[in-house]
Design goal:
Blueprint lengths: L5 E3 L7 E6 L5 E5 L2 E5 L3 E7 L2 E6 L8 E5 L2 E5 L12 E2 L4 E6 L3 E6 L15 H21 L5 E4 L4 H12 L4 E7 L5 H10 L7 E4 L5 H12 L4 H20 L3 E3 L4 H5 L3 H9 L4 H11 L5 H12 L3 E3 L5 H9 L12 H10 L7 H7 L13 H18 L4 H9 L10
Parallel strand pairs: 12-13, 12-15, 13-14, 15-16
Antiparallel strand pairs: 1-8, 2-5, 3-4, 5-6, 6-10, 7-8, 7-9, 10-11
Helix pairs in contact: 1-2, 1-10, 1-11, 4-5, 4-9, 4-13, 5-9, 7-8
Amino acid sequence: MKRLIGKCNPRRDKDFVEVDSAIIPLNFEKVDGFNIPVGCGASFVSSQNGKVCLFTGWSHEIPLYYSIYRDNLYWHEQQLALPRQMRPVLVERGQAVIWHPERGITTYEIEPIPRPPIRSDEVSLDEAVEEYLNLILDAVGNRIKSSIHPVAVSQSGGLDSCLVAWALHTLGINFVPMVACSSLEDWDYQMAQLVLSQIGMEPMPILITPQMLPELFDEAVFCYESTQFDNLQMAAANVAIARQCRELGIKTIFNGHAHDDLMGSEGLVQGKFKQLQGTASERWRDARRDSMSGFGMEKMFSTVFRRHGIKVQMPFFDTDLANWVFSQTTNTIPAKARKPFARLATRKVLPVGEWSREVYNRHGYITGAGFYEDNIRPAIEEHLEKAKIVFAYLKTQDWRKVASQHSAEPIHEESTN
């Protein structure tokens, strides 16, 4: 894995090409002389013929920002690590940005989020479930081909990461399922243990104590560059997992992000669905695809692991899978928040879990965030407030200092406070 960090003066520097992709690139689109990899979850940086091209595929898991300063184009995965004389600009999903020093910036829309026609050949639910599960296997399998082993899964007790674990196991891949938790009694750990026992596996608990939180939150803010409440506490849990991955020599980590967007379980998707025009199936497709345009959850996860040299794989950001899901009618994938189709499919391969009603009623909601339990909640809320101060301080730091810290090896010493 190579982080997308650099600068270029195309009138002076040598031509180059850098690609970071989820799967092996199969297709390319030629734009203004650049061969841009599409359909493979790629980010791409290249310089040739006196121009620089930056591209982020619709399904790439990490944002790419750029800024122009003193005849150089700078790019980085972190906003605060770029010159701020020009406010850093995000390369949007599916967008190519080409900079010519004399002519300035030209933007091209290359790879939009999939918007397939609604299928007219509806199949039975059983057939749809089989197609869906096979596409998940393909998405995971294609990403394994471009991944370095050993492999881990950022595991929770919810169906998203459990489906990824099932797919890896079905494909015969050895992996380490890691669950961030504050206690072995946490719902996520308990449910992950219950689910994984069905495929003969045991999750690895990554225990987080109140004493660890200062360092975890400091690094989480540094990587995530935001203090958004839910995502930041998840980012802190990811820091703990990333440090353990690094100690174990893990090179690639999978997760279940984007499945909620595909299936429409977020509240904003439900609201958008009611506002759009078209048939119910078209509105449901468009509301869900719109929810995938940002980088919030993806940046929260990816920046932490990439800083530790660990490649991130998000198989639910798969073009074939997205095309299939978005093409289904609401008879197959209902416009409901609790992912009924995904729950039905998961019961076919992992019969017992929070998606089976008797277990759900007994154990309650599975958070996936790692540590919502009472024994650590007060400390989390305290450090979330402190994180706002840390972030405000970071924004005052010289960009060169921030960039040098992102380039350096992260320090892992546990706090003794």
